[in-house]
Design brief:
It holds the Pfam family tRNA-synt_1g. The protein has 937 residues and is an alpha+beta fold. It contains 29 helices and 39 strands. Strand 34 and strand 35 (775-776) form a beta hairpin. The protein binds ligand ANZ.
Length: 937
Amino acid sequence: MFYDHQQIEKKWQKYWEEKQTYKTFDTTDKPKFYVLDMFPYPSGAGLHVGHPLGYIASDIYARYKRHQGFNVLHPVGYDSFGLPAEQYAIQTGQHPAITTEQNITRYEEQLRKIGFSFDWSREVRTSDASYYKWTQWIFIQLFHSWYNKSTDKAESIETLIQHFEEKGTQGLNANQNEELDFTAEEWKNASDLDKEDILLNYRLAYRAETTVNWCPALGTVLANDEVKDGKSERGGFPVYQKKMMQWSMRISAYSERLLQGLNTLDWPQPLKDSQEYWIGKSQGAQVQFNVENHNEIIEVFTTRPDTIFGATFMVLAPENPLVDAITTADQKVEVDTYIEETSKKTERDRMSDVKNVSGAFTGSYAVNPFSNEKMPIYISDYVLMGYGTGAVMAVPAHDERDHRFAKKFNLEIKKVVETDEDVQEKSFDSKTSVCVNSDFLNGLSYDEAKAKMIAEIENRHIGHGTTNYRQRDAIFSRQRYWGEPVPIYYKDGMPYTLPASSLPLELPEVEKYLPTEDGDPPLGNAKSFAWDEANQKVVATDLIDEVTVFPLELSTMPGWAGSSWYFLRYMDPHNEEGFAKKELSDYWGQVDLYIGGSEHATGHLLYSRFWNMFLKDRGYINQDEPFQKLINQGMILGMSAFVYRVEGTNQYVSKALANQYKTQKIHVDVSLLKGTSDELDTEAFKQWRPDYTDAEFILEDGKYITDREVEKMSKSKYNVVNPDDICEEYGADGLRLYEMFLGPLEQSKPWNTQGLSGVYGFLKKFWNLYFNGDVFEVSDEEPTKAEYKVLHTLIKKVVFDIENFSFNTSVSSFMIAVNELQKIKCNKRNILEPLAVIISPYAPHICEELWSLLGHDTSIEFEKFPELVEAFLIEDEIEYPVSVNGKMRFKLSLSAQLSPKEVEDLVISDPKMQQILEGKTPKKIIVVPHRIVNIVI
Ligand code: ANZ
């Protein structure tokens, strides 16, 4: 029977839509299971076959869990604020909302064609006011919260105010910008404005002057994870360091919890490692050094207090405020010149440039509190102001950067202590070290030496043990248009939140998406964007009088705001009273399986854990961690095609002849190749672009053969394959099976359209198992043991594979099972019904069709997954090879239930064996049960 995938797939997609097959209900007595994909940013280019890889895997899992009786939440939505739509708006004047809408429509069409079992009714879009209303609401909660280190959680700002009223800052253990010290009396006497200023020092969403990554070409600040090698991740524009007033999120308050939480998660180890590295916990000590002839004290952070005897000089960050005070008149010019030079470098450049050691001497000396030696004080850009205390004690015999610095400036290198770690690592350049073991630490292990030094430092009151985290607070404002407005207005320069009842604060219309002439962000162009405090509404910008009408915040939220909590919105997407009802967030709880790309390791996956912990602290949800199990799908790579242009001409030479010319290698679109071959359709190439209209070709055997190479699949490399084309030709079921068949989910693998015919052939064979010629024919006869064995072998394998996320191996098992059933001409209902259920998570359309042909009038989706009956796997008869003196002589079929002794007796009494024995008695008989019989005569 002809397998008409197009007709079948259209029919079932329509059916699912009409019957709302995948709509998920909350009120259920079934156990829940939450399967989530990282939601897409709807780009203008649409989907290519690399995008659905993770979605197919999660869809298979979601369907499998439905078959197992779970109430599955498997939603989809769009991360629809972001830079590309805005860049496009700047170029074309087209409102980003319009392009975003168009892109979403295209995405949805493409996704629907692949037959995903999403509950479309729960779709969210981060750029919809009904969604970002709650992003703004969460921002407001963060603004009105502080981190109490004593209770180790975020609390309402009211509890902080109460503490100030009762005790001032006494006994306060908070996470803050600056350590403040005041009494209850002083607090009460402070003006309202001063009180607000103090509170800003503690809020979880706060404004402060920070050094930011400023990207002039994009006109905005970027997060550290949006900057790669000093360039913006999007567009590759240069990024500079600049001090600006910015909104920040106090994620650093959560560093320890973010670190500890990793232990509870089932995530890939490399992903956990990168979060751990990003958080960067260091344990050590803060130690004070006196400066000769100055009252200033230099405080350093060191992870190696045990090396203090070998500290021979000090290095301050050029921005350290102490530099000015301790620089001598003689050294001032040199120091100032150096400071000027470093201000041009980004923090990243400073950290990555290890070869060019640079610095300047301040002219002052510190005193080593342990060796009492004089230590010259330098400044250098390898010391960063934002980490620790912005100053280091340099131990050139133990620290590589200090060592390079000492070499360059000819400073003393003194090795002091031989610890376990030194012995293990064989300190990087021991030849230059003088070994002056200090009696104080001799014989101790690294840990012991460190602990002893910290105790001694504390004892002498010159410092204390401390823990530092590399992770900084996250800058939260962007000077862009296409993002969530920050629900803040300014009165006397102080930020105040809008009342929650007035949300959403809608993104205003602007004429231009560029910064204003005064350098304000694009929202500064809006005609109606001011806050009328008394009437609690947005009014014309002209009305700002700083009395009743105030300016609103002009920056917008970063891309990660909306994606930090979307998994909660899916639980209750239409709620207008809250972001999600507590009963529902309790019922759906954690995401049980989250699938997405590894590029979100330190961005989205840290921010969303942070917001989730915050919402838990404030009692809005119950779970600590949002994503219990996470899988990073690999990338699907494209097969790029290249032509060789003879330099300076419009001639193109075929691959094999290219080395005879001086050529340039140029990408061509893979759609210009003939069929699935490497041959270029030269006519199509000429029409591709105006510059190629007059192209001439140097052919081999009358053909132009392109060069091929595996690269990342990307529109810019012209190697994308559109899933729509694949669905058209091989069906969505073919696409789904093939994407899984390509290889293990986590690995990267090249796409090869030729491989699709294999899975398509399988689908046809599977289909035809249910037909006799053109007639659907399934027999009700009881299957044989052999038939049951094929089925149950498959059940066992597929259950194991799905539960271990090994989707590629299931596809091979389907192929094996279908081949075997075809060979034994099985068309029994008791085999073919369960077979359709087993294959349906992978190829849902064909299985729905077969299911309905089998006489069912409900969807296959909720059928119970067939259960394994081990008895069917047990062999009845074993065909024993009988080997005599190491040579296989004959085979004997015996019951699998026999004991070794019974096997032995039956083999010996067999006439064939009797003939071989010729009356002799065997010297030795070894029976390996179910395998072989070895006889020595
Ligand atoms: C002496 C020493 C001896 C150090 C030694 C290391 C090895 P992590 O692990 O990243 O926390 N350091 C401290 N503050 C710094 C800053 N603002 N900029 C650059 N470097 C800074 O690194 C902590 C170590 O990095 C500290 O321990 C300090 O050097 C340096 F054999 O002190 B150490």
